[in-house]
Amino acid sequence: MSVQRQSQSPQREQPPNTVVPVKYAGKWIAWNQDRTRILGGGSTIQEAQAAAQAAGEAEPGYEWVPPADRRIVGPSR
Amino acid sequence: MNFPYGQYEVAPSTADPDLTVVFRPVIPVRVIGPAGAAAFYGLLDTGADQTVLPKALADLIGVTGNPARAATLLSASGEMSVTYTNVAFELGRGRGKVYWSATVAIIEEAWQEVVLGHAGFLEYFDATFFGVRRQVRLRRNTRPLPKS
Fold first, then answer.
1. A37 touches B: beta carbon within 8 Å
2. How far is CA B46 from CA A76, B117, B125, B127, in A?
3. Which domains, from first to last, does chain B contain?
4. What is the pLDDT of residues A29-70, one digit of tens each?
5. Domain boundaries, chain A
6. CA distance to partner chain B, nearest, from residue A7 (Å)
7. Is the sign of the CA dihedral A36, A39, A40, A45 positive or negative?
8. What is the spatial distance between Cα B83 and Cα B107, in angstroms, rounded to a whole number?
9. A-chain residues within 8 Å CB-CB of B112?
10. What digits encode the pLDDT tens for the residues B14-38?
11. Is A54 an 8 Å CB contact of chain B?
12. Do B76 and A74 make contact, defined as CB atoms within 8 angstroms?
């Protein structure tokens, strides 16, 4: 029996994530499972949830996007 | 586990007028509570003493902070009141997936960001930030994971 090993090299490149467009700044967004597509967003997490459901995504991931005109130095409100 | 940084389109600032995209070590983590589980993206913050979840997230998975366990946290924008509760975390995929239980702070105020700080999260990993590749690597360290 042969055992196939996946490379676990820390040097392995990961594909970059999709850029979050500025239109979602300050909003909750829903990602597809692989973080390759933004399914929609809104001012509340429930709106992001609704976008994920409308897209038929079984395992969405939610994220709040900081405002685009602010740079983060320690999380802020 | 390697995670590419999140990429965010931003408005120019006076400090960096030509910058259009910033990169942040924001990674996916699954948070499990009594009402369910959901995947969220949180900021790995080596400057944060604790792990912080916004109330919107807590509501979604059915956890509430214990009023008897209240405290004040100091953030970049001032002091904020929090309460603490326990959640379960799930990180990674496939055979490398890990689970643990953690005490987290729930922000009752207008805070939306998931902050993955030392207590409850980073303490269980050795983290390496690769600036050129814009990736972060988390490797399990020897600190035992509390059972979820």
1. no
2. 15, 6, 11, 9
3. 2-10+25-127+134-140 (2.40.70.10)
4. 999 999 999 999 999 999 999 999 999 999 999 999 999 887
5. 25-66
6. 12
7. negative
8. 7
9. 28, 64
10. 888 888 999 999 999 999 999 999 9
11. no
12. yes
